[in-house]
C-alpha cells in the first residue's frame, strides 16, 4: 500500500495538527475582580477572542471580565466568558 503524504509534507501536517491542538488547550490566567485575584481557565482561542474584543472596545481583559462577572446569572465565570465571546462574534457576523 502506498503512503500518501499530506500537502506541505509530514512536518507541515504535524505542525498544523499541533497548532489546532494547542489553540484549544485550556490556559489558566489570573484576573483581578473586585480587588480579588481570580483564576480563570479557558481555551487559548477563547482568551484570544476576549483579547480581540478588548482591543476593539479599548478595554482591558480584566475590565471585560468584571463586566461579565457583574451580569452572569449563577453560571461559572469561565462559562459566562465563553458565552460572551461567542455572542459577541455571532452578533458581528449576523450584522454583515
SSE order and pairing:
Layout: H1 9-23, E1 26-33, E2 36-43, H2 44-57, H3 61-71, H4 77-95
Antiparallel strand pairs: 1-2
Structural write-up:
The chain has 96 residues and is of the alpha+beta class. The protein has a single domain, classed as protein bp1543 (Ribbon-helix-helix fold), CATH 1.10.3990. It has four helices and two strands, in the order αββααα. The protein has a two-stranded antiparallel sheet with strand order 1-2. Helix 2 crosses helix 4. The chain is globular and about 40 Å long. The protein starts with 8 loop residues before the first helix and ends with a helix. The N terminus is likely disordered.
Query: What is the top-level CATH class?
Result: Mainly Alpha
Could you tell me how far the N terminus lies from the C terminus, measured between alpha carbons in angstroms? 48 Å
DSSP strand (E) fraction?
15-25%
Q: What is the correct CATH architecture? A: Orthogonal Bundle
What sequence of helices (H) and strands (E) makes up the elements? HEEHHH
CATH topology: Ribbon-helix-helix fold
Number of domains as seen in the coordinates: 1
Total helix count? 4
Read across the widest sheet, the strand sequence of neighbours is: 1-2
The CATH superfamily is identified as: protein bp1543
DSSP summary, beta strand count: 2
User: Which runs of at least 5 residues are low in confidence (pLDDT < 50)?
Assistant: 1-5
Q: How would you sum up the major sheet?
A: 2 strands, antiparallel
The pLDDT mean sits at 84
Radius of gyration: 18 Å
Helix content: 55-70%
Shape: globular
Q: What structural class do helix, strand and pairing data support?
A: alpha+beta
